[in-house]
Amino acid sequence: MHSDHDGGPGDGRAGGPDDAAGGIRALTPADPSRIGRYALLGRLGSGGMGRVYLARSAGGRTVAVKVVHEEHATNEEFRARFRREVSAARRVGERFTAPVLDADPTADRPWVATGYVPGPSLEQVVRTYGVLPTRSVWALVDGLLRALDGIHRAGIVHRDLKPSNVLLTVDGPRVIDFGIARALQPSVESLLTSTGMVIGSPGFMAPEQVIGEDVGPPADVFALGCVAMYAATGRLPFGHGAPNPHAVMFRIVQSAPDLAAVRDEPLRALIARCLAKPAADRPGIAELLAELQADPNRPRPADATGAWLPPALLARLAQQAARLLEVETPE
């Protein structure tokens, strides 16, 4: 998936669960050896906005550095937007996201450094290991709510929450890729919306997103419901049997979600509330967090033992984290 993602200020992507080096590919002669004060170790991915590198600081911290493509670097409107996005993303707490650590929007090729997350995406895990057990899904929901709470408090709507933008680690999920998020202020336009394109991924887009209305935090709540169902069932509430993305988007606007595959009744009820058609009818992040905290039967996203995920997956995550330590910094 990450060979064609767009990344952005909140990108701390790691590689797939079965990659020998955690999804790290060798640098090419065309790649720089350093970006700012970071020594580059390898490539993590690239997309329409830029290329993502694995790098290490002089102090030894492993980071993901996103470098903007040249065609965008010459666009002053893009630079201004990039500067604002980075500034907003810096305000997001780092507990359940990939934190923005450093940036230089004025460089010849603007770049931003985020914490590197040594874990596979939810999409990769479901494809490789199958769906998560119910207990893990509840813990995932808790972590995603906390991540979105921090993102929204910073004045950002993610706009593209989906399984490939959720990384799983021993101590909880991490939400990444704020690159096509945008500040809530209407003056801050996204690169893609300014060209008339719809932002988002069809199976996870809220009805107001599909029909081009203003998008606020409730759109992320809708996406959260879709992500929770995917984690629990490997299916999407509007996507099963749909012939193409347009059919999915039509269903999102017009049809009731198909939640029959969600066996846990409380989880199914929560997902249904998140998927309400009118944005105003969806619960808020704070409301959902309060409900989960008040329920003694709900597992927390992580405890001291990291036991929120199945043991086999935890073992694989530990192996991947250990391999990362073996990646040598160039002289």
Describe the protein's architecture and organization.
This protein is α+β, with helices and mostly antiparallel strands. 34% of the residues lie in helices and 14% in strands. It has a domain of 190 residues: Orthogonal Bundle (Transferase(Phosphotransferase), domain 1), CATH 1.10.510. The strands form 3 sheets. It has a 6-stranded antiparallel sheet with strand order 1-2-3-4-6-5. Helix 4 packs antiparallel against helix 6. The longest helix has 20 residues. The N terminus is likely disordered.
- Widest sheet, order of strands: 1-2-3-4-6-5
> What is the general shape?
globular
CATH topology of the domain at 122-311: Transferase(Phosphotransferase), domain 1
Whole-Å distance between the termini?
31 Å
What kind of assembly state do the chains in view correspond to?
Answer: single chain
Q: Number of DSSP helices?
A: 10
CATH architecture of the domain at 122-311: Orthogonal Bundle
- Percentage of residues in strands: 5-15%
CATH superfamily of the domain at 122-311: Transferase(Phosphotransferase) domain 1
Order of helices and strands: EEEEHHEEHHEEEEHHHHHH
Per CATH, the class of the domain at 122-311 reads: Mainly Alpha
